[in-house]
């Protein structure tokens, strides 16, 4: 979708196994700069594995990953990749303030002891302002609401000056208004030229959020505009039947979809 | 006796000076490390490493090597074995820990039973504060300062490792290496604390101070002050109590720490039992209104 010659993320024929389970099966995906890309697929479809592969946390059995034209290890050292974890993966009682958490975005630029310099404090203050958390900066991280927590981690990616942000299920368990605020923020970041990749179950929000959408089930089934991806016949490829009309977007239907699609 | 004599009296004995120096050093180093162990959930790992060093200490005694060396070797061996069993079989981490440390501890007990001069070695189990030699003291001080220094210099990386290893990875750090560093420092810390309270009670020094500090603050930087200070104060109090009550010194130190924890657990302003009950009752009253 972008004219830039080097894509932000280029995944080619990526295959990953966990024991006997094939999580990724020759997945191929190219995401340009300055877009919001929604990664749609049910639980267990390999979205998280794809994120891990982009960050270089797992060794693929086959295929290659290039982040901004470089191997993941080099991209990590260049501070290219910012990661916003799933809520359930974070210890919210951990005794750190919002500012402390955002400051960890600066560690890649700091020396042996990660002692913050004035430039680091400035970057953190700026990032907090950008996500409108300046007033809550000294709260313990768990004392924030669901949406504020997400914004705090986005701020960490901004303090890091990451050009590619990966968000794993950011809309899980947040209310509609929070979702709208977060969507606006992510759209602004893409307008700045950053690449935002969001894995999500929230199909209704997709057209407002994303420039492009990827339908994912162990590999890329479809990569197109959200409107095209959301057509019921296309969704049926990844989820089974009638996802938008049905009450449940995951769970039982997902399991059924698994059998039908594979 | 006036209070000054009560405090200074015991210090006229060399063995009491050494005992205090060793215990306070151990308490401070353990107190700092404790903050990470409590937050990562590595209590069992602390227990494991401290028990697993026993055969190392006995073997060091047999061949006449410094006991710290033997303890360190077996501490690292235990950590490695636990990792290997966890990663290469379907056994979960807590079970791997349970298998490895009890086996090594048992090996230590067997070695003690076949080694002459059993009285000396039983001190390893319960600590031997009143028999601290000058050489022991120097050993503990040197290792304590090294461990403390590394912990303090790398505190921000270790905290990030404890909080969000995925982000640590994403910015080019190695969570695996940070975890290994923390485990290595755990082994060193156990060696430092061994003399003070013995193999069996070391885990108390590794867990209670951090758990106490965690109940008192929401700031990790403050935990890193509170935990060693609480540990050191409890250690000194415990030593004096054991002197005047003529009780086990290691036992008294841990008992004091446990008592401090109990008080904080009940009365901590923010996270104590009483405060949270009061806050809940107040919320309920407001809700009814």
Give a short overview.
The complex is a heterodimer of chains A (262) and B (289). Chain A is an alpha/beta fold and 262 residues long.
What descriptors fit this protein?
A: 262 residues, alpha/beta, Rossmann fold, three-stranded antiparallel sheet, 9 strands, globular, B: 289 residues, mainly alpha, ABC transporter involved in vitamin B12 uptake, BtuC, 14 helices
Write up this protein.
The complex is a heterodimer of chains A (262) and B (289). Chain A is α/β, with parallel strands linked by helices and 262 residues long. Chain A has a domain of 149 residues: P-loop containing nucleotide triphosphate hydrolases (Rossmann fold, 3-Layer(aba) Sandwich). In chain A, the strands form two sheets. Chain A has a six-stranded mixed sheet, sandwiched between helices. A three-stranded antiparallel sheet of chain A has the order 2-1-4. Helix content of chain A is 34%, strand content 22%. Chain B has a single domain, classed as ABC transporter involved in vitamin B12 uptake, BtuC, CATH 1.10.3470.10. Chain B has 14 helices and no strands. Classes of the chains: A alpha/beta (262), B mainly alpha (289). At the A-B interface, helix 2 and strand 5 of A face helix 9, helix 10 and helix 12 of B.
CATH architecture of the domain at 1-80 and 194-262 in chain A: 3-Layer(aba) Sandwich
Radius of gyration of chain A: 18 Å
How many DSSP helices of chain B?
Answer: 14
Helix content of chain A: 25-40%
Query: According to CATH, what is the topology of the domain at 1-80 and 194-262 in chain A?
Result: Rossmann fold
Quantity of strands of chain B, as a count:
0
Largest two-chain interface: A-B, 31 and 26 residues
Straight-line distance between termini of chain A = 29 Å
Low-confidence stretches of chain B: none
Here the CATH topology of chain B equals ABC transporter involved in vitamin B12 uptake, BtuC
Numbering strands along the chain, what is their spatial order in the largest sheet of chain A?
A: 5-6-7-3-8-9
